[in-house]
Amino acid sequence: LRSCSPGRARLTNASRHAYLVARFGDIYAQERLDAETLLRTYVSDMEMVQRIIYIAAVESFHAAKMAYRHFKMRVRKTLSLGHSGPESLEDTVLDYIVRHEDLYDVQASVNEVIHSMNMNPKISFPPETDFIVISSLIRELCRVAFSMQTLIPPLDIAFGTDGELFNETKYRRSFDSDFTAPLVAYHVWPALIENDTVIVKGEAVTKR
């Protein structure tokens, strides 16, 4: 049986959407720059610093989406045992997750992200230190990415590759870019997308 009245998740969808998009922007404006400043004390090459932060963002979204999928499967399995309506099981599951987001083990995702970054051949770090120094940025990104999965439709980040054709609708050029160069040398920040449509531009560096 389906209920005519929407559940908590659907009723709060618009306000949660607005908050999470704004929070993503805040992380770009504040936590990202804090992490940049911190990394500069260990890594002199600004390009490497920006690559590290971009990969941290990409890996955070990946880890949070995987965690959400597993969390949702566990919740669905538990609630399906006694579910009888009036809401659909899917709506009941979503309502439960929205109410209990604090049960998300964000530290496990942070550890996963740091492990993935240590394996990534595109970034390197001085041997005497560790990517754990930017764990507060990773934690905030994981939290936001997890919450974004509870939206209808969920939000995600755009896939980006070095050497791709620069796309005006997806990215802004960094101030130190060659503004005539057609290709992306590397990415600074991912674009945020909803149903394959860019809703917040990312940032990229173009060079010849």
UniProtKB/TrEMBL annotation:
Its main location: cytoplasm. The keyword Coiled coil applies. GO terms for biological process: mitochondrial protein catabolic process; mitophagy by internal vacuole formation. InterPro entries: MIEAP, MIEAP_C. Keywords: Coiled coil, Cytoplasm, Lipid-binding, Membrane, Mitochondrion, Mitochondrion outer membrane. It comes from the Eukaryota. Residues 16-206 form the Mitochondria-eating protein C-terminal domain. It is found in: Cytoplasm; Mitochondrion matrix; Mitochondrion outer membrane. One of its GO terms (molecular function) is lipid binding. The keyword Coiled coil applies. It holds the Pfam family MIEAP. GO terms for cellular component: mitochondrial matrix; mitochondrial outer membrane. PANTHER family: MITOCHONDRIA-EATING PROTEIN (PTHR21771:SF0), MITOCHONDRIA-EATING PROTEIN-RELATED (PTHR21771). Belongs to the MIEAP family. This is Mitochondria-eating protein. It comes from Nothoprocta pentlandii.
